[in-house]
Amino acid sequence: MALHVTPASADGRAEVGQLARAVQASTGQSVELAYADQGYTGARAAEAARAYSIELEVVKLPEARRGFVLLPERWVVERSFAWASRFRRLVKGYERYATTLADLHLLAFACIILKQAARLAADP
Length: 124
What we know:
This protein is mostly helical. It has two domains: 1-62, no CATH class; 73-124. Helices cover 48% and strands 6% of the residues. It has five helices and two strands; from the N terminus they run H-E-H-E-H-H-H. The protein has helices spanning 16-27, 43-50, 74-84, 88-91, 98-122; strands at 33-36, 55-58. A two-stranded parallel sheet has the order 1-2. Helix 1 packs parallel to helix 2 (43-50).
C-alpha cells in the first residue's frame, strides 16, 4: 500500500500523518482501520491518522502476561518482516538513500504477492 522510511532517530508518532496520507492516496481513501504497536500510543498519532479518516488501533499486551504472548494482528507484521528478510538487499543497510530502500521494499513485496498469486492460480 505505502511505505515511509525514516532514520532511526526520527519519532515514529510524528510520521503517522505522512504515512496515513500515502496509504489513502494509494488505496483511493479506502482504509478505515490501521493496527499499530505500542510505540504509536497517544493523541498526537491518533489525531494524525484521523485527519485522513483512519482509525488507529494500538495493539497492547494483556495485563496479566506470563511468558510469550502472541499479540492479535501483530503476527501479520512480524510475518511480513520475515518474508522481507529473505531478500538479501533488505537484510543489511546497503542503501545510501531512503528512497532506494523504500523502492526495494515495494519490489520485494510485489514479488511475494506475485508468487502467492501464482500459487493460488495453480491450485484447482
